[in-house]
Write a structure and sequence with these properties.
Chains A, B: It holds the Pfam family SpoU_methylase. The structure is a homodimer. Chain A is an alpha/beta fold. Helix content of chain A is 32%, strand content 21%.
């Protein structure tokens, strides 16, 4: 349903305001129960994943490319706006001109996640690109799902969905209520493997897990908290050249997820 | 040597113009034989790597943090500018307020690279973040160097240096004159291992190389060219879940560089 909009203050565009203000967006998206997809590719992924659109916000020249997706949601408003208006509402130059707002899908239930053989568990990852990349890696390497700590960045934040290439919408994931829920993993028979840089940990090459594995990844700056380290059954590290910065957390996750898959 | 500059057209700031215009910058940086470091951390890495500064461009409040680096180059001009002026000259909001221009160091000679046991060889990687990440990964995992094809993105471009965390300045690397130079690798006893998504290639897990390894990585969009694939001794792939996008080239590089190191 095409609707031309020419006023940046039009309340129907409320889902799309200030997309670069991550604090404002977190509150808005949680309160409204929505997430934003950006770019044709991610909008297609959302359609494939069965996400339910609230609206689309497109510049005219992007209509044709998303014809089929829009036809599948003929009852959903598609606001057609100029590039200037899109920028005024969203606060940035919209990459590739296409945005859509969706109903946030429910998180995967614990039962589903605890049935997996391999889970990534993220403590307090703050960068949305990193959390998205971790979901992409977990999906690509066949891991069963991702669990994020109470304070971890939102896997459904626009930039996370984008860097996940849509894996945020397909791979089962859920947010922990608190750190005690690590015990659910243990009770379900998972070995809790802490990814760490600490000397004295087991070299990744020398570690061959049996049974279910939960790979614990820590914050970009300070790694896993003491509490999570203590909760882990084993601490594993990627041997690295001396004097070199550690790998980025998403890159380290890929190496570990490959070796432990 | 602190020099206050208040005119955006001052020719002494010529090294820093239009930093976001990658085509203009490529020509300028090649012609002048320079590269740009951005941010205190990378400027420190450049100092550690022994890079020779042409000048610094700092906002006043960043002077104190780089005191020691500046003291080590008392003869080099340090242009002190306002945030507005820095943005007017460079064309973007300068992250963390510190820039420096350096003499481009010579590339590593072939003899040095051919003496390594492990080399990454990049064909036509176009994204500067990717080429930087690949250098970071190669350095962290102890590979001996990187070779880039004639058309590959510049490892010393500002964003590449940044995403490499300075590895572009420390790890030996060089650019090929043309594809025939792949034969230098072969003549030096390297096994040429093509990283590929092609079905029918050897699964990474099942491949254990002997002797020297050159890992060939292809362009982000279309992978390795036919010519490079044909030049390779073996094609190796990371087994991935069906229906999932392949890993980003830098992430795939990390997994392969770890397993084949």
């Amino acid at each position: 349903m095409l609707v031309e909009v020419t006023d940046a203050a039009d309340p129907r565009l409320g889902d799309y305001v200030s997309l670069r203000d991550s604090k404002l967006r977190r509150n808005l998206e949680q309160a409204e129960g929505l997430f934003i997809a950006e770019g044709e590719k991610i909008i297609r992924r959302a359609a494939e994943a069965g996400a339910r659109p609230r609206s689309f916000l497109l510049q005219e020249r992007w209509l044709a490319g998303l014809d089929d997706v829009l036809a599948g949601h003929a009852d959903v408003p598609c606001y057609v706006v100029s590039a200037e208006l899109a920028e005024r509402v969203s606060g940035f130059h919209v990459h590739r001109g296409a945005l859509a707002s969706y109903v946030r899908p429910p998180e995967a239930p614990w039962e589903q996640l605890l049935g997996a053989k391999r889970l990534v568990v993220c403590e307090d990852i703050v960068d949305h690109t990193n959390i998205g990349s971790i979901l992409r890696v977990a999906a690509a390497l066949g891991w069963g799902g991702v669990v994020v700590s109470a304070t971890c960045a939102d896997p459904l934040y626009r930039r996370a969905v984008k860097s996940s290439m849509g894996a945020s919408l397909q791979l089962p994931w859920r947010r922990m209520a608190d750190d005690d829920e690590l015990q659910l993993l243990r009770a379900a028979g998972f070995t809790l493997v802490a990814a760490t840089l600490t000397p004295g940990s087991v070299a990744l090459d020398e570690y061959r897990p049996e049974g279910r594995v939960a790979l614990l990844l820590g914050n970009e700056g300070h790694g896993l908290s003491r509490r999570w380290q203590e909760a882990a059954d084993v601490a594993v590290t990627i041997p690295m050249a001396e004097g070199i910065d550690s790998l980025n957390v998403a890159t380290a996750a890929a190496v570990m997820a490959y070796v432990l898959r």
